[in-house]
Amino acid sequence: MPAISTKGRLMPPSPIRKLVPFAEAAKKRGTQVIHLNIGQPDIATPEVALDAIRHLDRDVIEYSHSAGYESYRKGLADYYAGHGIRVTHEQIIITNGGSEALLFGMMSCFEPGDEVIIPEPYYANYNSFAVSAGVTVVPVRCTIDTGFALPAIADFEALITPRTKGILICNPGNPTGYLYSRAELETLRAIVLKHDLFLFADEVYREFCYDGARHVSALELDGLEQHAVLIDSVSKRYSMCGARVGAFITRNAELYATALKFAQARLSPPTFGQIASEAALRTPQSYFDDVTREYVQRRDILVDGLNSIAGVTCPKPKGAFYCVAELPIDDSDTFCQWLLEHFVHDGHTVMMAPATGFYANPESGRKQVRLAYVLEQGQLRLAVECLRHALAAYPGRSAVASAPQALVGGA
Amino acid sequence: MPAISTKGRLMPPSPIRKLVPFAEAAKKRGTQVIHLNIGQPDIATPEVALDAIRHLDRDVIEYSHSAGYESYRKGLADYYAGHGIRVTHEQIIITNGGSEALLFGMMSCFEPGDEVIIPEPYYANYNSFAVSAGVTVVPVRCTIDTGFALPAIADFEALITPRTKGILICNPGNPTGYLYSRAELETLRAIVLKHDLFLFADEVYREFCYDGARHVSALELDGLEQHAVLIDSVSKRYSMCGARVGAFITRNAELYATALKFAQARLSPPTFGQIASEAALRTPQSYFDDVTREYVQRRDILVDGLNSIAGVTCPKPKGAFYCVAELPIDDSDTFCQWLLEHFVHDGHTVMMAPATGFYANPESGRKQVRLAYVLEQGQLRLAVECLRHALAAYPGRSAVASAPQALVGGA
């Protein structure tokens, strides 16, 4: 047979989904699996979005404009204005989720062999888009003892080479939940301008900011008109992951025209998803207030619960709905699989994503896991108890996690 | 500002959509534009698909499996069985339209610099996916005087180099409407096996076969288990282009596992579109019978009408809903733009796709256009009359088309 491509061999399997067969086997044995492995919220999609779908008044489900419906893009521009981001509908391309926006961005901006600096741990699928575009990910290390704050400017500059072409951030962050301060973003702005780099900002968790913190967008930073690319998605905002509607946004006209050619090649983003997303723009503020209140409670239950387990370290994030915890274990891949294959507590077990997939070098995440607090509070309490018992029973337990627990409280 | 990538610069603009601004200007002047430029049918989407959307009974629009809903894939496997194609649901990945299936295939099978042979004229966006994957398209020329039949085996073999890794066909063909015979497919099979190549078969127009002709799938050919990839889509079958639901299908387990990693990277295909597509599997045969009858009538009106214009050559295709016509003109890009900018007949003009974008070398399509007969019969008659008057008035008219008209009738 003809050979598979190098890219195909290099493409990593999803660390979020790779344990799915073990979860399916556990369910077949009658074990209830608490899914904290994936950012699939149980929050209801806004009624206004579902109603638009249920009242569909079309006879032919046609292509839309390759950049998406103009009416939706105009509505989105208004939405951004409400968040302090000034863009026009002609600076927005609607995409098949944030994923396609990232792919368009990487394909449009980077040559094969170019380097993109990404604070790690980072969203695992960034590796996949980098492989697709032939781009090299250069990680800049964030550590659990600072709660995964942005590294110092010197750490970035030490990594910059003639091939460095961009920086990619996720804010608030998946997997850490870290929310960048304005000062941190100004640091990034300075690096980007000094070295003439693209700045990709994945801001799909914009609405999920806690404890009174305000989100600052990369598009609010002055002087980055030619450099900043905003990656967005309705998936989490409206708990509508399956709509597959995202956005690629830039004020750089040449880059916009380039990305639009990639958009034309795949004809159009999904019509049904756009109808739901345009309607979702009318979601009342009370929906977000309720969701935020719920996530804060969930976060506190999960993170406080984790930190109450001997040897576990978990900074409390200010955004998104993930956290990264360090566990007293030998190997997070082995532990997560063991939970599904060999552990049951009161009929339940927990599925998590090993953090090995969120680091450029898997060793860095060997004792860490990512947890998504996307389930209701009772399930999260149960998950914490499962983990408490599991860590006591796990044969590969190590004495203590490598980070000192005393640093956790204030992170 | 940082520079745009080489791929971004090489990516061609859509020849099907590049004249859109001129069409919009014509409409603003009050001219009715008859859109034969794009394969967007006016045929109604099956009620059974729209009903499934209108009766949506979900509270959360979740991700699906990265390969698509299992129930939909099982239903699709039954659909294929009904077309003589034996595949299981574990050989199917649901994609964001046929476009994404092609991208997954190219990324999984080909190295940058590998060569893929494509009979030309070919669907323009194949160039775009090739640019994305860094693949070189090597055209093998089909000519209008044979009605765009498959070239001789010697023509293929003359093009094969150590970098040749695959052959891509569209059957029935966009833009020519050509339907490959079983003998032609057996020819391809022999080349593929002899040179150990992948065979990509874009069969999204499977249902659109006329004059009693039967479609033969690449997956019906013996011995190609490791070589054949089927690219499919619901867009045309159910007049549901905006659903963005396609499929990547192969019996090659290693290739399937590789493509699935690309699918995992973008999380899932669209949920709404899959719901509509799964329901559409219950579309009654009478729908297809009615649609086929309608397209045959449309084809005959358009193709016979075109051939009745002095100097115009248009083979009558046996499949899909496109045709390529050779016109007595200097330049199809200029002519198509002129139609939108400077021509009106009884308040109407015609929008077509210049064939320059459907050839590796634009010169080959300089006198040709692609027309999609996706509008109702009255509009097609009007389009023919518009073209008759336009060709008489066009300043860049040449004496005769380059192909002798006598050859047209039997094509």
Gist of the model:
2 copies of one chain form a homodimer. Chain A is α/β, with parallel strands linked by helices and 411 residues long. In chain A, 36% of the residues lie in helices and 14% in strands.
Number of helices of chain A: 13
Q: What oligomeric arrangement do these chains adopt?
A: homodimer
Question: What is the CATH class name of the largest domain in chain A?
Answer: Alpha Beta
Number of DSSP strands of chain A?
12
Write down the domain tally of chain A.
2
- Kindly estimate the percentage of residues of chain A that lie in beta strands according to DSSP: 5-15%
**For the report, how would you describe the main beta sheet of chain A?**
7 strands, mixed
CATH topology of the largest domain in chain A, by name, is Aspartate Aminotransferase, domain 2
Strand order of the largest sheet of chain A: 2-8-7-6-5-3-4
- Globular, elongated, flat, extended or rod-shaped: what is the shape of chain A? globular
Question: What do the pLDDT scores of chain A average to?
Answer: 94
State the largest interface: A-B, 81 and 81 residues
The computed structural class of chain A is alpha/beta
Could you spell the SSE succession of chain A in H and E letters? HHEHHEHEHEHEHEEEHHHEHEEEH
Helical amount among residues of chain A, as a percent range?
25-40%
CATH superfamily of the largest domain in chain A: Type I PLP-dependent aspartate aminotransferase-like (Major domain)
